[in-house]
Each structure stands twice: as C-alpha cells, then as structure tokens.
Write a structure and sequence with these properties.
Layout: E1 2-5, H1 6-11, H2 13-21, E2 26-30, E3 33-38, H3 48-61, H4 88-104
Parallel strand pairs: 1-2
Antiparallel strand pairs: 2-3
C-alpha cells in the first residue's frame, strides 16, 4: 500500500489509475491526513463470509487481532452491566447534560 497526496494524484491521475488496475492500493492524503483509499474495484459479488474472512486475515496480519485458540462450540457471552441500581446511568447522564448546558449559557 502506497501513499499519495491529493495534488500529486490529481496531476498524474491516469498513471495512478493504471497502477490501480494492476492491483496497487493507494492511501490518498490531504495535508498529511488520510482521506481515502484507492483500490481496484471488486469484480462480481463475493459472499459476505469471504469478505469477513479476508478482513479478519488482514487484521491478523497487521497484528491488530489474535485468532481464537479454540473453537467457540456451545458457549455464549451475556453482559451483566456495571452492577448499578436501575436508573443510575440515566441520572448521571442527565447531570452531565445539565452541566454542559450551564457551561454554554
């Protein structure tokens, strides 16, 4: 994956498009901030599972995720919350919102 600035991309768009057709991927930057990704178009619709597998493989290669060591089997996860009394979160949010309104007035 290569990086190209907007001005350079605009000046040499045809050259970059030829490289994209050959499979090259570019990150497009504007003032050193990534604003877009230029990659070859997908030909034909692939199943969602295939896209998910590719995404997971890419994340694994980038060391952003670690694959599970064991198969899921029959277990499931159920969140339990923070153990606060009912309505506590709403009261906290109302308090924060009222403070924010007071600061803006």
């Amino acid at each position: 994956m290569r990086v190209v600035g907007v001005k350079q991309l605009k000046a040499k768009l045809s050259e970059y498009l030829r490289e994209v057709k050959r499979g090259e991927v570019f990150l497009v930057t504007d003032r050193d901030q990534v604003v877009a990704e230029l990659r070859p178009a997908r030909s034909g619709a692939r199943p969602i599972e295939d896209d998910l597998e590719r995404a997971l493989e890419a994340l694994e290669e980038a060391a952003q995720i670690t694959p599970a060591r064991m198969a899921k089997r029959d277990w499931s996860w159920h969140p339990r919350g923070a153990g606060l009394a009912p309505g506590t979160a709403a009261k906290l949010l109302d308090s924060l919102r009222s403070e924010r309104v007071e600061r803006t007035q």
